[in-house]
Amino acid sequence: SAPAVFNAADEVAVGAFLRGRLGFPDIPKLISETLRIVEWRAVTRIDDVLEADRQARAVACELLG
Predict the structure, then answer these.
(1) Which residue of 2, 26, 51, 65 has the smallest Cβ count within 10 Å?
(2) pLDDT tens digits, residue range 41-61?
(3) Which residue, 41, 52, 62, is CA-closest to 5?
């Protein structure tokens, strides 16, 4: 599920950057911290990917404050 977590965190981070809520150098920091917090799991169904995406977006948004 790590690729799904990475992608979701990246989308949140870039969106925050474009809205002026996050500095450019902070994009990889937010992604890295999200990857550290969200537990990686085996993906066997699309629901697993969607759940990883949901969790990662929630964590990334929480980290933004």
Answers:
(1) 65
(2) 999 999 999 999 999 999 999
(3) 52
Alpha-carbon 56 to chain mean position: 4
Question: CA-CA distances (angstroms) from residue 24 to 14, 16, 46, 47?
Answer: 8, 10, 31, 32
Model confidence pLDDT, tens digit, residues 17-28: 999 999 999 999
SS3 state of residue 38:
coil
Exposure string for 28-37, b = 16+ CB within 10 A, e = fewer: eebbebbbee
Give the whole-angstrom CA distance, residue 6 versus residue 35: 7
Report residue 24 as tokens.
């450019």
